[in-house]
Write a structure and sequence with these properties.
Structural class: alpha/beta
CATH class of the largest domain: Alpha Beta
Number of strands: 6
Largest sheet: 6 strands, parallel
CATH architecture of the largest domain: 3-Layer(aba) Sandwich
CATH topology of the largest domain: Rossmann fold
Length: 333
């Protein structure tokens, strides 16, 4: 029995159009206005991003640009809502009250719409066909939203853990997990970087002077707290995902586990807790690990070393995965 940990590159290797660029183009083509809005907040127009880049960006809001574009609406909302409300309640409801939450937060809905309309169902074609070989007793942890393993390889669903859920039924779409792994203090550090507080303060002051308005509260402070809370709302709930899949993670500890393969995964920091959970099983510490790479072996090795230095430190192990190509994978399976 082998364990396979699958990332987006696994589906891309089957020529399934599931890259960040595919999603970006879908939103631009079908929801152009919202595409522009997201560009304001996340600067997401870089079509060279990997999924990990996109997800990480959800925690890195361009607060200066958003304030510049929406300063009138922001100050109007704060002025109307500040009187008679506790500050904490105001902050928590700020994004929704000024209308930005409705525009920006439904990125989840767009993501799920894209998956349902373009990635379901997966079917064998001349272009999309099996390229790997698996054993009947192999088990899989998939970070993907597709049923590629079931549709192309006939893998039984009991052998698969869809850690971020997947689309199995067009009519019954589950909440798909997409988001960053940043803590609140990290978001705060990013948003307040590059003298952003001073820049936002200047935008607010100029607007108040131009419109001859005065306020008796700290607009800038309220704006920062609101955007920090908003960005934190996109954090993946990895702890719940891990707790909800303990039965599957415990399968990793079986004595007949021979090898662990990581295929098409970016090794992004957001998924560190999952690798720690896997490596914390005694059997996982004993068996060899292999990581596939497609190109840029130097960058892949850097990402691998960075991730597993943290994994080994956390679980007190000396796991040293070997980088392999697809041809080498077939030899070591």
């Amino acid at each position: 029995m082998n364990l396979y940990i699958l990332g987006n590159g696994f589906d891309l290797a089957h020529e399934i159009p599931c890259s960040y660029t595919d999603f970006n183009c879908y939103v631009c083509r079908n929801h152009h206005k919202k595409h522009e809005l997201y560009g304001e907040m996340y600067n997401w127009k870089n079509t060279n991003w990997l999924w990990s880049d996109f997800e990480n960006r959800l925690g890195k809001i361009d607060i200066v640009n958003c304030t510049r574009l929406h300063v009138a609406r922001i100050i109007k909302t704060l002025t109307e809502k500040h009187q008679g409300k506790e500050r904490e309640r105001l902050i928590n409801n700020f994004m929704l009250n000024n209308g930005l939450d409705e525009d920006y937060f439904n990125i989840y809905e767009l993501f799920e719409e894209w998956v349902k309309n373009t990635l379901y169902p997966i079917k064998k074609t001349e272009k999309i066909k099996p390229i790997y070989q698996f054993n009947d007793d192999d088990i899989f942890i998939s970070f993907n939203y597709t049923t590629t393993l079931e549709a192309l390889y006939g893998i039984h669903k009991k052998n698969i853990c869809y850690i971020h859920s997947c689309v199995k039924d067009e009519k019954d779409l589950p909440r798909l997990e997409v988001g960053h792994g940043m803590e609140r203090y990290e978001i705060k550090e990013h948003i307040e970087n590059n003298n952003n507080r001073e820049k936002v303060q200047k935008i607010v002051e100029n607007y108040l002077v131009e419109t001859k308005q005065t306020v008796d509260f700290d607009v800038t402070d309220d704006i920062f707290e609101a955007f920090i809370d908003f960005a934190y709302g996109f954090k993946k709930d990895t702890l719940s995902n891990i707790n909800n899949n303990q039965d599957f993670f415990n399968c990793i500890n079986r004595e007949n586990l021979n090898k662990i393969f990581i295929l098409g995964h970016s090794l992004a920091p957001v998924d560190l807790p999952y690798f720690i959970e896997i490596a914390n099983r005694e059997q996982a510490k004993k068996v060899p690990w292999f990581v596939s790479y497609y190109k840029d072996i130097a960058q892949k090795k850097k990402d691998l070393d960075t991730l597993f230095s943290k994994v080994n430190k956390d679980v007190d192990a000396h796991i040293d995965p070997m980088l392999i190509t697809l041809d080498q994978l077939r030899l070591v399976q």
